[in-house]
Amino acid sequence: MNDTISLLMNHRSVRKFKSGAVTDEQLAAIVAAGQMASSSSNVQAYTVIAVTEPALKTKLAELAGGQAYVEQCPVFLVWCADLYRLKQVAVHHQPGQPSYEGSVENYTVATIDTALAAQNAAVAAESLGLGIVYIGGIRTKIAEVSELLGLPELVYPVFGMCIGVPDQDTGLRPRLPQSGVLHMNGYDKNQTMKAVELYDHTSAEYLKERTGGQRSTPWSEQMAARLTEPARLQMKTFLEQRGFLKQ
Questions:
Q1: Per-residue pLDDT of the chain (247 residues; tens, 9 = 90+)
Q2: Has UniProt tagged this entry with the keyword Metal-binding (predicted)?
Q3: Please, which residues have CB within 8 angstroms of residue 134's CB and are 6 or more apart in sequence?
């Protein structure tokens, strides 16, 4: 264990923030750390939109499903997969040549690049004593969010991120046993399901304690309910309309 691993092992989602601002210097350092994340072929296929304007945060909070902490946090970052930039340089340097910015592979690369940069930024924020929470809810009304932020073709909001000084201690949520995610030299289906059985007990006890005994649903039951409930099925059509998933 060292300071870096200790920081990573103490990550928790923060949904309540103090009124103090995130400084311009902190924001610059956080985004700079994000930019140093690994990037496939150095394409750097992402853009970050920092939202600080109260009225804009209020609207984004509504579009994200009424999540008040989007409105209340000092800075709300919208992490976008961005192939628009690459398309423009391809047109400039290879005029008349076919390009494949709409391929599933490039969509995948852009999405992964965005996630890697965002996680670097999250760790940087926490190292400065700030707290973060990812907001996937901005994809619920993704077309409206994109219009509100003026996103061009080949750009889509992957998720948001609230950043601020924490005003709560949420405790650490237990994860799957490492045996469930670390397999040696091949995938072991029995090992996976044994880990789920162990985690069900741990997760049920955690939820029971966190809710004062009101809930104790095991993880596997929660995931089954999630998987059998349709969610954001508009994403495929939206992405195709924005120029993604063409090839």
A1: 899 999 999 999 999 999 888 999 999 999 999 999 999 999 999 999 999 999 999 999 999 999 999 999 999 999 999 999 999 999 999 998 999 999 999 999 999 999 999 999 999 999 999 999 999 999 999 999 999 999 999 999 999 999 999 998 888 999 999 999 999 999 999 999 999 999 999 999 999 998 999 999 999 999 999 999 999 999 999 999 999 999 8
A2: no
A3: 13, 118, 122, 159, 160, 161
